[in-house]
């Protein structure tokens, strides 16, 4: 590629994936370089798989934060382990925002925002939309 195209790609990488991996670069340059190559691969192509779509920098920052260090099985206010005061607040805020996004009344509706991987999320959709003995292809 020409130098101008490389600069455009580098600018795009910084706008989509701002550089926030200095600690990784210092601790493990080899993994850091592989992460950089993956960023470039994602920017150069279009993935049509929903679970591989672009994640915004703020979401990546939250997912890479100390929130991931906390085991928080259960529901807000009724966790199996202590120390979830802030996790509970994050989850309740997420629930409130989900209800607001669909203009739903909190007194009439509830929402579970916990599925962390595609399998539980898919299962939630399947059980909501399918009848017993319906077939799923794919």
TrEMBL record:
Keywords: Pyridoxal phosphate
GO molecular function: glycine hydroxymethyltransferase activity; pyridoxal phosphate binding
Record keyword Lipoprotein present: no
Pfam families documented for this protein: SHMT
Alphabetical list of InterPro entries matching this protein: PyrdxlP-dep_Trfase (IPR015424), PyrdxlP-dep_Trfase_major (IPR015421), Ser_HO-MeTrfase-like (IPR049943), SHMT-like_dom (IPR039429)
CC terms in the record's Gene Ontology section: mitochondrion
Gene Ontology BP terms: glycine biosynthetic process from serine; tetrahydrofolate interconversion
Catalysed transformations (reactions): (6R)-5,10-methylene-5,6,7,8-tetrahydrofolate + glycine + H2O = (6S)-5,6,7,8-tetrahydrofolate + L-serine
Cofactor (UniProt): pyridoxal 5'-phosphate
Domain Serine hydroxymethyltransferase-like as annotated: residue spans: 24-138
Protein name: Serine hydroxymethyltransferase-like domain-containing protein
Source species: Micromonas pusilla (Picoplanktonic green alga)
Lineage, uppermost ranks: Eukaryota, Viridiplantae, Chlorophyta, Mamiellophyceae, Mamiellales
């Amino acid at each position: 590629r020409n130098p101008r195209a490389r600069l455009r790609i580098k600018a795009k990488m910084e706008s989509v994936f701002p550089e926030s991996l200095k600690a990784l670069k210092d601790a493990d340059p080899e993994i850091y370089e592989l992460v950089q190559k993956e960023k470039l691969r994602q920017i150069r192509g279009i993935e049509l798989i929903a679970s591989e779509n672009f994640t915004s920098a703020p979401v990546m920052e939250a997912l890479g934060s100390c929130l991931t260090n906390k085991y928080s099985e259960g529901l807000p206010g009724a966790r199996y382990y202590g120390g979830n005061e802030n996790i509970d607040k994050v989850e309740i805020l997420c629930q409130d925002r989900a209800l607001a996004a669909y203009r739903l009344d909190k007194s009439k509706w509830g929402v579970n925002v916990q599925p962390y991987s595609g399998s539980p999320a898919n299962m939630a959709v399947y059980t909501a939309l399918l009848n017993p003995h319906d077939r799923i292809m794919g």
